[in-house]
Amino acid sequence: MSTATGLSSPERPATTPTFQAPSTGRKIKNNLATFLVGLAFVIALVPLVWVLATVVVRGIGAILSSDWWGRSLSGVLPESYAGGVYHAIYGTLIQAALAAVIAVPIGILAAIYLVEYGRGRLAKTTSFMVDILAGVPSIVAALFIFAAFISILGAEQSAFMVSLALVLLMLPVVIRNTEEMLRLVPDELREAAYALGIPKWKTILRIVLPTALSGTVTGVMLALARVMGETAPVLVLVGYSQSINFDPFSGNMASLPLLMFSELSNPEPSGQFRIWGAALTLILIIMILQLGASVVSRFSAISK
Amino acid sequence: MAKRLDLKAVDIFYGDFHAVSDVNLSVSPRSVTSFIGPSGCGKSTVLRTLNRMHEEIPGARVDGEVLLDGEDIYARSADAVAVRRTIGMVFQRPNPFPTMSIRDNVVAGLKLQGVRDKKKLDEVAEASLRGANLWKEVKDRLDKPGGGLSGGQQQRLCIARAIAVQPDVLLMDEPCSALDPISTLAIEDLIGDLKKEYTIVIVTHNMQQAARVSDQTAFFNLEATGKPGKLVEIDDTEKIFSNPHEQATEDYISGRFG
User: Fold this and answer.
1) Which of A197, B165, B217, B241 is the most exposed place for a label (fewest CB within 10 A)?
2) Where does residue A252 rank: exposed (0-12), middle (13-18), buried (19+ CB within 10 A)?
3) Contact A195 B113 (CB under 8 A)
4) What is the C-alpha separation between A159 and A237, in angstroms, rounded?
5) CB spacing of B147 vs A304 below 8 angstroms
6) Does residue A85 contact residue A277 with C-beta atoms inside 8 Å?
């Protein structure tokens, strides 16, 4: 055995090595591509960070003021910095919650139908309608509710009307997301359950849904977060109120987007102050929902 | 309570496609019957008609009679759910329920049929796991998820789950094809034990396995692609592997085709 090393050793004749360093051209291209990808990322990040930073900087004063979370604007003069927005927080939460109470069961049941039972015409039509509904702008949903419930049926403007419009916006998101989660459940699990003599409905309820649960809950929370910031329905379907109204079925009710919109017409600097504060509050609420969603998906029932 | 199975002039269709034609065979209680044959010849399809599992595929249809101790499982009055309760199945790939613990996986069938008695469920879980030769390996982690076991253990868990509902017949669709030789041996030993109490039908691609575990072997083949598969012959395993009646069987077994 030779102890010589390198290309000149007798076992390895001195030829060009098979493995060479990358050529200069390739290195340049690689660096250029890496640079461009990084640049695109930074550019995409700029508006996000900018918006967030602006909202935080301008809104932090408002949300840290002592009355912000516990008082309404009842009796507060436009130029005053006093008062808080708990009436609007309540409005946003109750409107979204009512929408969820209606949209989540319907959406999940519709998705179960599409995945587990739907064949043929009805399923195709439903699926097509869901796609159309997903593309409906929020102002159209709001005007539809206005036309159908307020103009034709004679209902009065109220927070519940807003919730109905939000249902229209939430439904396609919940259906599509649940549908995807259910389709991810392997057919082998369904077959395993059938082979044990478990009826189909019980298989769906006890095997398929629990397996898809975390994804479904995450989807619902994201859908909720999305509709909370919707402005068109609150502009069209409910009047603004400076004070708290606990009844979603009658009277005016504030919500965070509506409060921001109404403060826009306040010429005093305190108006700006409250707009940024409400914006930051809304972002915080949505962030909490998103965090909740990721916690749920982490502590899901499926453990590896 | 093992029962006998008889297939009489069974034809299987998927929509317009004639998948398997004219199968006649009998499986006696407390025996192992293996189905062998090239891919696509319809042996899994036949197996899945034995507990009406193929019905889950839209457009699937069966003509002829499948008799369990003389009772037609395709009779108008027969409920597919009840049929599957009586004729259990183990699948090619282990498929424990991912949301359930080992114990809950085993008793899933009983629990979802409405049995609540915790003591009884615990007893069944232990008996089934012992029956599947898995008790010693998992008895200290019954509350851990079934997905954490090895492939071979998962498959034995699935067998435990299938025998926990005390079926009369146990169908196995290539139960070892995803397993290593040691796990395969464990399952084969288990099949030998299980046949004392159950009627077993197993589909396998492994001819040594068919020769090792089964009392009776059925050879399926198809004449050409697009033609329906059919049962070429069924006989004692020893006979099939030493001196089969049909030339096609001998060719397949000796590796001349397929």
Assistant:
1) B241
2) middle
3) no
4) 7
5) yes
6) yes
Mean pLDDT for A276-298 is 89
Chain B closest CA to A182's CA: distance in Å?
Answer: 14
* CATH classification (class only), B5-96+172-253: alpha beta
Tell me the one-letter amino acid at A122: L
**Confidence band of A37 (pLDDT split at 50, 70, 90):** very high
Band (A99; pLDDT cuts 50, 70, 90): very high
Q: Are strands B199-203 and B169-173 parallel, antiparallel or unpaired?
A: parallel
What average pLDDT does this structure show over A63-78? 86
* Structure tokens given for B142: 């019954």
Q: Among 3.40.50.2000, 1.10.3720.10, 1.20.120.1730, 3.40.605.10, what is the CATH number of A86-298?
A: 1.10.3720.10
B99 has a chain A CB within 8 A of its CB? yes
Residues ≥6 apart with Cβ < 8 Å to B30:
B2, B195, B196, B197, B198, B199
Chain B residues with beta carbon closer than 8 angstroms to that of A214: none
Among A242, A220, A208, A258, which Cα is nearest to A87's? Answer: A242
Question: For B146, which residue in chain A has the nearest alpha carbon?
Answer: A304
CA distance A140 to A26: 53
When pLDDT is averaged across residues A44-57 and rounded to a whole number, the result is 95
Helices B151-164 and A187-195 pack at an angle, to 10 degrees, of 40
In the block, tokens 């259906």 appear at: A175
Task: Say how far apart CA B129 and CA B139 lie, in whole Å.
Answer: 9
Report if pTM > 0.90: no
- Residue A242, classed as helix, strand or coil, is coil
Written as one string, the DSSP assignment of B186-218 is: HHHHHHHHHTTTSEEEEE-S-HHHHHHH-SEEE
Q: Are B161 and B108 in contact (CB under 8 A)?
A: yes
Q: Is B85 near chain A, with CB under 8 Å? A: yes
CA B163 to chain centre: 12
Backbone angles phi, psi at B173, to 5 degrees: -100, 95
Kindly state the DSSP code that residue A207 receives in the 8-state scheme. I
ipTM of the complex: 0.88
Q: Are B201 and B27 in contact (CB under 8 A)?
A: yes
Alpha carbons B212 and A233: distance in angstroms, whole number? 72
